[in-house]
Amino acid sequence: MSNEISLGSNNDYLKFLQEVKSHIQNSRLKAALAVNCELLTFYWGLGCMILERQRESKWGDSLINTLARDLKSAYPDNKGFSPTNLNYMRIFAETYPGFQISETVSRQLPWSHHVILMKRSKNHDERSWYCNKAVEEGWSFRKLSAELKKDTYHRQGILEQKTTNFKDRLPPSQSLLAQETIKDPYKFDFLTVGQDAHELEIERALVKHIKEFLLELGKGFAFVGSQYPLHVSGQNFRIDLLFYHVKLYCYVVIELKVGKLKPAHASQLNFYLSAVDDLIKGPNDNPTIGLLLCEQKDKVIAEYTLRDINKPIGISHYELMRILPEKLQTNLPAIEEIEARLNAEIDQILPEKVELADITS
Questions:
Q1: What top-level class would CATH report for the domain 157-322?
Q2: Can you give the residue ranges of every domain in the chain?
Protein backbone atom coordinates (compact mmCIF):
# COMPACT_ATOMS: atom_id res chain seq x y z
CA MET A 1 0.00 0.00 0.00
CA SER A 2 2.83 2.39 0.86
CA ASN A 3 4.39 1.79 -2.58
CA GLU A 4 1.12 2.76 -4.27
CA ILE A 5 0.91 5.97 -2.25
CA SER A 6 4.46 7.00 -3.02
CA LEU A 7 4.02 6.11 -6.70
CA GLY A 8 0.85 8.19 -6.92
CA SER A 9 2.73 11.29 -5.78
CA ASN A 10 5.82 10.60 -7.91
CA ASN A 11 6.38 13.26 -10.59
CA ASP A 12 7.70 10.77 -13.15
CA TYR A 13 4.64 8.57 -12.67
CA LEU A 14 2.27 11.55 -12.97
CA LYS A 15 3.96 12.51 -16.23
CA PHE A 16 3.61 8.92 -17.46
CA LEU A 17 -0.08 8.90 -16.46
CA GLN A 18 -0.66 12.07 -18.46
CA GLU A 19 0.99 10.48 -21.50
CA VAL A 20 -1.28 7.44 -21.18
CA LYS A 21 -4.37 9.66 -20.93
CA SER A 22 -3.30 11.64 -24.01
CA HIS A 23 -2.78 8.38 -25.90
CA ILE A 24 -6.26 7.17 -24.95
CA GLN A 25 -7.82 10.51 -25.90
CA ASN A 26 -6.08 10.53 -29.29
CA SER A 27 -7.17 6.95 -29.95
CA ARG A 28 -10.77 7.80 -29.08
CA LEU A 29 -10.67 10.83 -31.35
CA LYS A 30 -9.25 8.82 -34.25
CA ALA A 31 -11.88 6.14 -33.71
CA ALA A 32 -14.68 8.73 -33.64
CA LEU A 33 -13.37 10.35 -36.83
CA ALA A 34 -13.10 6.97 -38.53
CA VAL A 35 -16.69 6.10 -37.57
CA ASN A 36 -17.93 9.50 -38.75
CA CYS A 37 -16.02 9.15 -42.04
CA GLU A 38 -17.53 5.71 -42.61
CA LEU A 39 -21.04 7.01 -41.83
CA LEU A 40 -20.71 9.90 -44.29
CA THR A 41 -19.37 7.55 -46.95
CA PHE A 42 -22.31 5.19 -46.34
CA TYR A 43 -24.87 8.01 -46.53
CA TRP A 44 -23.30 9.33 -49.74
CA GLY A 45 -23.32 5.86 -51.29
CA LEU A 46 -26.96 5.26 -50.35
CA GLY A 47 -27.82 8.71 -51.71
CA CYS A 48 -26.17 7.78 -55.03
CA MET A 49 -28.19 4.57 -55.18
CA ILE A 50 -31.45 6.47 -54.62
CA LEU A 51 -30.48 9.15 -57.12
CA GLU A 52 -29.54 6.63 -59.81
CA ARG A 53 -32.69 4.55 -59.36
CA GLN A 54 -34.92 7.65 -59.46
CA ARG A 55 -33.30 8.68 -62.74
CA GLU A 56 -33.61 5.23 -64.31
CA SER A 57 -37.15 4.43 -63.16
CA LYS A 58 -40.46 6.25 -62.93
CA TRP A 59 -40.77 5.76 -59.18
CA GLY A 60 -40.01 9.39 -58.29
CA ASP A 61 -40.62 10.47 -54.69
CA SER A 62 -42.54 7.30 -53.92
CA LEU A 63 -39.21 5.46 -53.86
CA ILE A 64 -38.02 7.36 -50.77
CA ASN A 65 -41.28 6.91 -48.84
CA THR A 66 -41.51 3.20 -49.64
CA LEU A 67 -37.82 2.59 -48.91
CA ALA A 68 -38.08 4.43 -45.59
CA ARG A 69 -41.04 2.28 -44.56
CA ASP A 70 -39.31 -0.99 -45.47
CA LEU A 71 -35.98 -0.02 -43.86
CA LYS A 72 -37.78 1.00 -40.68
CA SER A 73 -39.44 -2.42 -40.62
CA ALA A 74 -36.09 -4.17 -41.17
CA TYR A 75 -34.10 -1.96 -38.76
CA PRO A 76 -36.58 -0.65 -36.15
CA ASP A 77 -33.85 0.62 -33.81
CA ASN A 78 -32.21 2.83 -36.46
CA LYS A 79 -33.79 6.28 -36.72
CA GLY A 80 -31.57 7.38 -39.61
CA PHE A 81 -33.77 5.95 -42.36
CA SER A 82 -36.69 8.37 -42.18
CA PRO A 83 -38.02 9.80 -45.49
CA THR A 84 -36.50 13.19 -44.59
CA ASN A 85 -33.06 11.76 -43.89
CA LEU A 86 -33.10 9.57 -47.01
CA ASN A 87 -33.92 12.66 -49.04
CA TYR A 88 -30.95 14.47 -47.45
CA MET A 89 -28.73 11.55 -48.49
CA ARG A 90 -29.93 12.00 -52.06
CA ILE A 91 -29.17 15.74 -51.88
CA PHE A 92 -25.78 14.91 -50.33
CA ALA A 93 -24.91 12.78 -53.37
CA GLU A 94 -26.09 15.58 -55.71
CA THR A 95 -24.13 18.22 -53.79
CA TYR A 96 -20.85 16.28 -53.84
CA PRO A 97 -20.53 14.35 -57.13
CA GLY A 98 -17.43 12.18 -57.31
CA PHE A 99 -17.34 12.23 -53.53
CA GLN A 100 -13.95 11.95 -51.83
CA ILE A 101 -14.39 12.20 -48.06
CA SER A 102 -10.80 13.25 -47.40
CA GLU A 103 -10.88 16.07 -49.98
CA THR A 104 -14.34 17.33 -50.96
CA VAL A 105 -16.00 17.31 -47.55
CA SER A 106 -14.40 17.62 -44.15
CA ARG A 107 -14.52 14.21 -42.51
CA GLN A 108 -14.43 15.92 -39.12
CA LEU A 109 -17.94 17.35 -39.43
CA PRO A 110 -20.85 15.16 -38.30
CA TRP A 111 -23.87 14.47 -40.47
CA SER A 112 -26.05 17.06 -38.73
CA HIS A 113 -23.57 19.80 -39.74
CA HIS A 114 -23.66 18.73 -43.38
CA VAL A 115 -27.46 18.67 -43.39
CA ILE A 116 -27.80 22.24 -42.18
CA LEU A 117 -25.08 23.38 -44.58
CA MET A 118 -26.97 21.83 -47.48
CA LYS A 119 -30.20 23.45 -46.29
CA ARG A 120 -28.96 26.97 -45.65
CA SER A 121 -25.81 27.68 -47.67
CA LYS A 122 -26.38 29.06 -51.16
CA ASN A 123 -23.36 27.83 -53.13
CA HIS A 124 -20.17 25.78 -52.97
CA ASP A 125 -17.91 28.68 -51.88
CA GLU A 126 -20.19 29.65 -49.01
CA ARG A 127 -20.58 26.03 -47.91
CA SER A 128 -16.81 25.47 -48.00
CA TRP A 129 -16.18 28.61 -45.94
CA TYR A 130 -18.59 27.54 -43.19
CA CYS A 131 -17.21 24.01 -43.32
CA ASN A 132 -13.62 25.19 -42.80
CA LYS A 133 -14.62 27.58 -40.01
CA ALA A 134 -16.58 24.87 -38.22
CA VAL A 135 -13.54 22.59 -38.25
CA GLU A 136 -11.00 25.29 -37.33
CA GLU A 137 -13.00 26.69 -34.42
CA GLY A 138 -14.81 23.54 -33.31
CA TRP A 139 -18.33 24.86 -33.93
CA SER A 140 -21.14 22.81 -32.46
CA PHE A 141 -24.36 22.25 -34.41
CA ARG A 142 -26.01 25.10 -32.49
CA LYS A 143 -23.07 27.44 -33.13
CA LEU A 144 -23.00 26.61 -36.85
CA SER A 145 -26.77 27.23 -37.04
CA ALA A 146 -26.34 30.61 -35.36
CA GLU A 147 -23.52 31.65 -37.72
CA LEU A 148 -25.60 30.66 -40.75
CA LYS A 149 -28.56 32.60 -39.40
CA LYS A 150 -26.37 35.68 -38.88
CA ASP A 151 -25.00 35.33 -42.43
CA THR A 152 -21.43 35.47 -41.11
CA TYR A 153 -20.01 34.47 -44.49
CA HIS A 154 -21.08 37.72 -46.13
CA ARG A 155 -20.30 39.82 -43.04
CA GLN A 156 -16.85 38.38 -42.38
CA GLY A 157 -15.81 36.08 -45.19
CA ILE A 158 -15.82 38.42 -48.21
CA LEU A 159 -12.84 40.73 -47.72
CA GLU A 160 -13.33 43.14 -50.62
CA GLN A 161 -16.67 44.37 -49.29
CA LYS A 162 -15.14 45.82 -46.13
CA THR A 163 -13.97 49.39 -45.73
CA THR A 164 -10.49 49.45 -44.18
CA ASN A 165 -7.00 50.75 -44.94
CA PHE A 166 -5.31 47.70 -43.41
CA LYS A 167 -3.64 46.68 -46.68
CA ASP A 168 -1.78 50.02 -46.87
CA ARG A 169 -1.10 50.51 -43.16
CA LEU A 170 -0.15 47.02 -41.90
CA PRO A 171 2.43 44.45 -42.97
CA PRO A 172 1.00 41.69 -45.21
CA SER A 173 1.22 39.03 -42.49
CA GLN A 174 -1.05 41.10 -40.23
CA SER A 175 -3.29 42.93 -42.70
CA LEU A 176 -5.08 39.83 -44.00
CA LEU A 177 -5.83 38.52 -40.51
CA ALA A 178 -6.98 41.99 -39.40
CA GLN A 179 -9.26 42.19 -42.43
CA GLU A 180 -10.76 38.79 -41.67
CA THR A 181 -11.34 39.87 -38.05
CA ILE A 182 -13.59 42.79 -39.03
CA LYS A 183 -17.30 42.22 -39.70
CA ASP A 184 -19.80 44.43 -41.49
CA PRO A 185 -22.38 44.83 -40.13
CA TYR A 186 -22.12 44.02 -36.43
CA LYS A 187 -25.46 42.81 -35.14
CA PHE A 188 -26.14 43.83 -31.55
CA ASP A 189 -29.62 42.32 -31.53
CA PHE A 190 -29.09 41.27 -27.91
CA LEU A 191 -29.49 44.96 -26.97
CA THR A 192 -32.73 46.90 -26.69
CA VAL A 193 -32.33 50.66 -26.35
CA GLY A 194 -34.55 53.69 -26.78
CA GLN A 195 -34.89 55.62 -30.03
CA ASP A 196 -32.94 58.55 -28.59
CA ALA A 197 -30.17 56.52 -26.94
CA HIS A 198 -26.79 58.21 -27.22
CA GLU A 199 -23.38 56.61 -27.63
CA LEU A 200 -22.61 56.26 -23.92
CA GLU A 201 -25.90 54.40 -23.29
CA ILE A 202 -25.16 51.94 -26.10
CA GLU A 203 -21.61 51.50 -24.84
CA ARG A 204 -22.80 50.77 -21.29
CA ALA A 205 -25.35 48.29 -22.62
CA LEU A 206 -22.62 46.49 -24.59
CA VAL A 207 -20.41 46.27 -21.51
CA LYS A 208 -23.37 44.97 -19.48
CA HIS A 209 -23.78 42.21 -22.08
CA ILE A 210 -20.03 41.71 -22.50
CA LYS A 211 -20.31 37.97 -23.15
CA GLU A 212 -22.68 38.45 -26.09
CA PHE A 213 -20.61 41.43 -27.26
CA LEU A 214 -17.39 39.37 -27.33
CA LEU A 215 -19.17 36.56 -29.21
CA GLU A 216 -20.32 39.04 -31.84
CA LEU A 217 -16.86 40.60 -32.16
CA GLY A 218 -15.41 37.16 -32.83
CA LYS A 219 -12.63 34.92 -31.62
CA GLY A 220 -9.52 36.50 -30.09
CA PHE A 221 -10.86 39.68 -28.48
CA ALA A 222 -10.03 40.30 -24.80
CA PHE A 223 -11.85 43.15 -23.04
CA VAL A 224 -9.56 45.75 -21.42
CA GLY A 225 -11.99 48.50 -20.42
CA SER A 226 -14.65 51.06 -21.34
CA GLN A 227 -14.19 54.82 -21.15
CA TYR A 228 -10.49 53.98 -20.88
CA PRO A 229 -8.57 57.09 -19.73
CA LEU A 230 -5.76 58.66 -21.74
CA HIS A 231 -3.67 61.54 -20.39
CA VAL A 232 -2.05 63.57 -23.17
CA SER A 233 -0.25 66.87 -22.63
CA GLY A 234 -2.13 67.60 -19.41
CA GLN A 235 -5.53 66.85 -20.90
CA ASN A 236 -7.83 63.89 -20.23
CA PHE A 237 -9.40 61.81 -22.99
CA ARG A 238 -11.47 58.64 -22.86
CA ILE A 239 -11.60 55.75 -25.32
CA ASP A 240 -15.07 54.23 -25.75
CA LEU A 241 -13.91 50.59 -25.70
CA LEU A 242 -10.41 49.12 -25.53
CA PHE A 243 -9.61 45.49 -26.38
CA TYR A 244 -6.54 43.36 -26.95
CA HIS A 245 -6.53 40.79 -29.76
CA VAL A 246 -4.61 37.65 -28.83
CA LYS A 247 -4.07 36.54 -32.45
CA LEU A 248 -3.12 39.93 -33.89
CA TYR A 249 -1.01 40.73 -30.80
CA CYS A 250 -2.24 44.29 -30.70
CA TYR A 251 -4.64 46.64 -28.95
CA VAL A 252 -7.95 47.38 -30.68
CA VAL A 253 -9.69 50.70 -30.06
CA ILE A 254 -13.44 50.75 -30.80
CA GLU A 255 -15.34 54.01 -31.12
CA LEU A 256 -19.16 53.98 -31.23
CA LYS A 257 -21.06 56.66 -33.12
CA VAL A 258 -24.82 57.18 -33.31
CA GLY A 259 -26.17 58.23 -36.69
CA LYS A 260 -24.23 58.72 -39.91
CA LEU A 261 -20.48 58.37 -40.41
CA LYS A 262 -18.62 61.69 -40.38
CA PRO A 263 -15.00 62.17 -41.54
CA ALA A 264 -14.14 63.82 -38.21
CA HIS A 265 -14.84 60.50 -36.44
CA ALA A 266 -11.82 58.90 -38.12
CA SER A 267 -9.57 61.82 -37.18
CA GLN A 268 -10.54 61.40 -33.53
CA LEU A 269 -9.88 57.65 -33.70
CA ASN A 270 -6.54 58.25 -35.43
CA PHE A 271 -5.53 60.44 -32.48
CA TYR A 272 -6.47 57.71 -29.99
CA LEU A 273 -4.43 55.11 -31.89
CA SER A 274 -1.34 57.32 -31.82
CA ALA A 275 -1.75 57.84 -28.07
CA VAL A 276 -2.23 54.12 -27.37
CA ASP A 277 0.85 53.27 -29.45
CA ASP A 278 2.96 55.72 -27.45
CA LEU A 279 1.50 55.29 -23.96
CA ILE A 280 0.16 51.72 -23.69
CA LYS A 281 1.54 49.47 -26.44
CA GLY A 282 4.41 47.24 -25.36
CA PRO A 283 7.64 46.69 -27.33
CA ASN A 284 6.43 43.29 -28.58
CA ASP A 285 2.92 44.46 -29.54
CA ASN A 286 1.93 45.14 -33.14
CA PRO A 287 0.51 48.54 -34.18
CA THR A 288 -2.83 49.36 -32.58
CA ILE A 289 -5.89 48.94 -34.80
CA GLY A 290 -9.00 51.11 -34.75
CA LEU A 291 -12.59 50.10 -35.45
CA LEU A 292 -15.16 52.81 -36.05
CA LEU A 293 -18.74 51.60 -35.58
CA CYS A 294 -21.53 53.82 -36.91
CA GLU A 295 -25.25 53.27 -37.25
CA GLN A 296 -25.10 54.36 -40.88
CA LYS A 297 -22.11 54.00 -43.19
CA ASP A 298 -21.80 55.45 -46.68
CA LYS A 299 -19.14 53.40 -48.50
CA VAL A 300 -17.83 56.30 -50.65
CA ILE A 301 -17.52 58.64 -47.67
CA ALA A 302 -15.83 55.84 -45.70
CA GLU A 303 -13.27 55.28 -48.47
CA TYR A 304 -12.50 59.02 -48.74
CA THR A 305 -12.27 59.29 -44.97
CA LEU A 306 -9.61 56.57 -44.73
CA ARG A 307 -7.56 57.55 -47.78
CA ASP A 308 -5.06 59.79 -45.97
CA ILE A 309 -5.40 58.42 -42.44
CA ASN A 310 -2.04 57.20 -41.14
CA LYS A 311 -3.22 54.56 -38.68
CA PRO A 312 -4.90 51.21 -39.50
CA ILE A 313 -8.67 51.71 -39.21
CA GLY A 314 -11.72 49.75 -40.25
CA ILE A 315 -15.19 51.27 -40.60
CA SER A 316 -18.32 49.14 -40.11
CA HIS A 317 -21.92 49.80 -39.20
CA TYR A 318 -23.92 48.16 -36.45
CA GLU A 319 -27.53 47.09 -36.03
CA LEU A 320 -29.47 46.91 -32.77
CA MET A 321 -33.02 46.63 -31.47
CA ARG A 322 -34.75 49.92 -30.80
CA ILE A 323 -37.59 50.19 -28.27
CA LEU A 324 -40.75 51.31 -30.07
CA PRO A 325 -42.67 54.35 -28.83
CA GLU A 326 -45.53 53.41 -26.48
CA LYS A 327 -48.26 54.66 -28.88
CA LEU A 328 -46.92 52.48 -31.68
CA GLN A 329 -46.59 49.45 -29.40
CA THR A 330 -50.32 49.50 -28.59
CA ASN A 331 -51.17 49.27 -32.31
CA LEU A 332 -49.08 46.15 -32.90
CA PRO A 333 -50.58 42.61 -32.76
CA ALA A 334 -49.84 40.52 -29.69
CA ILE A 335 -47.03 37.97 -29.89
CA GLU A 336 -49.55 35.13 -29.56
CA GLU A 337 -51.37 36.39 -32.65
CA ILE A 338 -48.14 36.60 -34.65
CA GLU A 339 -47.12 33.07 -33.60
CA ALA A 340 -50.54 31.68 -34.57
CA ARG A 341 -50.30 33.26 -38.03
CA LEU A 342 -46.76 31.98 -38.56
CA ASN A 343 -47.63 28.46 -37.44
CA ALA A 344 -50.58 28.39 -39.83
CA GLU A 345 -48.35 29.49 -42.73
CA ILE A 346 -45.62 26.99 -41.83
CA ASP A 347 -48.15 24.13 -41.69
CA GLN A 348 -49.23 24.99 -45.22
CA ILE A 349 -45.66 25.22 -46.58
CA LEU A 350 -44.11 22.36 -44.60
CA PRO A 351 -46.74 19.68 -43.93
CA GLU A 352 -44.09 17.23 -42.75
CA LYS A 353 -42.19 18.40 -39.68
CA VAL A 354 -38.48 17.59 -39.48
CA GLU A 355 -37.48 15.82 -36.28
CA LEU A 356 -34.04 15.99 -34.67
CA ALA A 357 -33.62 12.27 -35.30
CA ASP A 358 -33.77 12.97 -39.02
CA ILE A 359 -30.46 14.85 -38.99
CA THR A 360 -28.56 12.83 -36.43
CA SER A 361 -27.32 9.30 -36.38
A1: alpha beta
A2: 2-155, 157-322
145: phi > 0 → left, psi -120 to 50 → alpha, else beta; which?
A: alpha
Contacts of 111 (CB under 8 A, 6+ apart): 36, 39, 40, 43, 359, 360, 361
* b/e burial code for range 295-328 (CB count within 10 A of at least 16 → b): bebeeeebeebbeebebbbbbbbbebeeeeeeee
Cβ–Cβ < 8 Å for 82, 68: yes
Q: For residue 289, is it left (φ>0), alpha (ψ between -120 and 50) or beta?
A: beta
Q: Of 52-61, 198-207, 285-294, which has the strongest mean pLDDT? A: 285-294
Backbone angles phi, psi at 99, to 5 degrees: -55, 125
Q: Shortest CA distance to 294 belongs to which of 312, 273, 275, 320? A: 320
- DSSP state, residue 359: G
**Tens digits of residue pLDDT in 272-306:** 999 999 999 999 999 999 999 998 888 889 999 99
Element (H, E) at 122: none
Residue 343: pLDDT above 70?
A: no
